[in-house]
Amino acid sequence: HGTIDLAVIPGDGIGPEVVEQALKVLTRAAGNAGLEVAPTEYRLGAEAWLETGETLSEETMTRLRGHDAILFGAVGADPKSAEVPSGLIEREILLRLRFAFDHFINLRPSRLFPGAVSPLSEPGEIDFVVVREGTEGPYVGNGGVIRKDTPQEIATEVSINTAHGVERLVRFAFEKAQSRPRRKLTLIHKNNVLVNAGGLYARTFDRIAGEYPEVSTDYLHVDAATIFMTTDPARFDVIVTDNLFGDILTDQAGAITGGIGYAACGNINAEGTAPSMFEPVHGSAPDIAGRGVADPTAAVLASALLLRHLGHEAAALDVEAAVERDMAGKGTAPRTTHQVGEAILAELG
Ligand code: NAD
Ligand code: IPM
Ligand code: MN
Predict the structure, then answer these.
(1) What are the beta bridge partners of residue 160?
(2) Among candidates 279, 309, 310, which has minimal Cα distance to 296?
(3) Is 190 an annotated catalytic residue?
(4) Which residue in 132, 141, 183, 255 has the fewest CB atoms around it within 10 Å?
């Protein structure tokens, strides 16, 4: 019963390679739960831009808005392709979607799965989730360059942080922490230097903490947080942080849990006013694109986040359990993208 009306944006580089596997697993898991997945593919990315001169039209935005959810691979041109300005595709597609669809929660769970190899000698039990802000901070394009190419050049990207945006982010993070067994929430910022935005975050955090007496809280400056993420990642349960810090910390989180190929992301509009979007944390990986060796696990785990967001908790858990069994049994021989996808599918049954 029920159909998931899914937009699929495979994108560039390894994006299409990993999305193919994720869509296959998603379709099977949904099918096992009596659901149908009806995918509509959107060809967006560097190649499409080079062909058409358009990154993402208003018409496409309107069509995307009509879907239940979006499965996204990755965008970003190969830096060897000098015709594509750095970051153009990322800003005009990925960031545009996050902003237009109000994906204010950028949810990034990190788990060290049994069988995954952490580069840390004693990683301990890593199981935390980063609640990264998704629509504000230095990402909003509030800045510019004056006196360009002169010794007096001035370049700015002014971080935007609103009471409304920080409040709904922090509230979501407290709810998340409240729902987890350890009930711990860490605010990460840099309020010793970024006193204005950091102050807004800290005051909002402290005020809302009063409503969640069962959640234990602490605060770390982002520089120190990178130390603890290396020396004692088991200390983290839920982290709430700003857009840029969250970007950086979640690549580090991917690395310590065995690789960025396992890290999934939900761009969530928690108010339900537009479709949410699910993707791996990693990018288009031009260095390995086209070889069929990218790990699709992150994209597969993103499809579990998608199922969970749409209310299909059992199907989401099925996907996660299949990944867990696959990781535990995979051994150390290298596998192709396709082989990993098939192995997870086999675990799903
Ligand atoms: P990246 O995440 O693409 O790659 C970083 C490193 O991780 C590379 O060595 C890559 O080979 C490896 N890697 C990434 N995904 C992997 C996977 N699934 N399996 C195995 N190895 C994997 O980051 P980058 O090199 O900084 O960025 C490349 C391009 O992607 C840039 O244009 C960037 O702007 C873009 N980008 C897009 C997104 C997105 O669309 N969501 C996210 C990050 C970066
Ligand atoms: C991510 C990416 C994006 C970000 C880029 C490609 C705009 O790095 O999703 O982590 O910085 O958010
Ligand atoms: Mn990133």
Answers:
(1) 137
(2) 279
(3) yes
(4) 141
Residue 5 known to be catalytic: no
Please indicate whether residue 24 is annotated as part of the active site: no
- Residue whose Cα lies nearest atom 13 of ligand 1: it is 285
Take residue 105 and report the two structure tokens written for it: 């929660």
Q: What is the pTM of this model?
A: 0.98
- Smallest CA separation from ligand 2 atom 6, residue: 90
Q: Measured between alpha carbons, how far is 324 from 112 in angstroms, rounded to an integer?
A: 10
Q: Report pLDDT for 81.
A: 85
Find out whether the beta carbon of 295 lies less than 6 Å from any atom of ligand 1.
Answer: yes
Can you give the residue ranges of every domain in the chain? Answer: 1-107+260-349, 118-126+160-257
168 to each of 40, 51, 124, 322, 328, how far by Cα in Å? 31, 40, 32, 33, 37
Mean of per-residue pLDDT scores for the chain? 97
The closest-lying atom of ligand 2 relative to the alpha carbon of residue 91 is: 7
The CATH class of the 118-126+160-257 domain is alpha beta
* ipTM higher than threshold 0.90: yes
How big, in percent rounded to 5, are the helix, strand and coil portions of the chain? Answer: 45, 20, 35
Share of the chain above pLDDT 90, in %: 97
pLDDT at 1: 62
Residue nearest to atom 30 of ligand 1 (CA): 283
Q: Which of 139, 176, 201, 237 is catalytic?
A: 139
Q: Does domain 1-107+260-349 have CATH number 3.40.718.10?
A: yes
Question: Are 240 and 188 a contacting pair, CB within 8 Å?
Answer: yes
How do residues 137-163 score in pLDDT, each as one tens digit? 999 999 999 999 999 999 999 999 999
